[in-house]
Amino acid sequence: MPLTILVVDDDPGTRLSISDYLELSGYSVIVANDGQEALAKVEEYHPDLMVTDIVMPRMNGYELVRQVRQKPAFSLLPVILLTARTKTQERILGYQSGCDLYLPKPFELEELGAAIRNLLARSQIIQSAYRLAHLDNTNFLDNNSSQLNEIQKPQWFLELTSREQEVLELLTHGLSNADMGQKLHLSPRTVEKYVSSLLRKTGTSNRAELVRFAMKHGLVE
Prior knowledge:
Blueprint: E1 4-8, H1 12-24, E2 28-32, H2 35-45, E3 49-53, H3 61-69, E4 79-83, H4 88-97, E5 101-104, H5 109-143, H6 146-151, H7 162-171, H8 177-184, H9 188-202, H10 207-216
Parallel strand pairs: 1-2, 1-3, 3-4, 4-5
């Protein structure tokens, strides 16, 4: 079954060119005219990835991504933001909203296709790791007591602070530093320091690897 991609843009020409290219690349494509319509289609179709413009009527791309990220079922949905806005602060806003990639217009469809393939491959790895970790944890709990489970946790995990554990839990839900900071009453810069500490302690090189590691080893619920 082909993977499903949601394309969100209020410009019919852009929407059509992206949709045609993706369909020719073997994907199943659904479209939306604005963020509000897109939010409903995310709930209805559960796409594997979303490509969205930022400047749109009714609900812009920033708000769309923020609302998608607030839904646990879509916290890890790969999102690409497309926009003609190229200022640094606007790119920062895009990443703070929770997007995975910020692609400025104009762009080549081949570049978009490569980015989509990369994000989908990473997403499938994370989902596979999550399912495997969930299965392993279920089997372990069925055959061992909770006390034994505590004893067999990796030694480095016992060295995580309570705040690091909170950040780790929120990372698996795909929250940005700003969103985690709001929930934990910390500044985004302080959150980033906790993330860096987690990367160092787990020996991972980026957030995607950290999430996979945490899920594989049953470090998060």
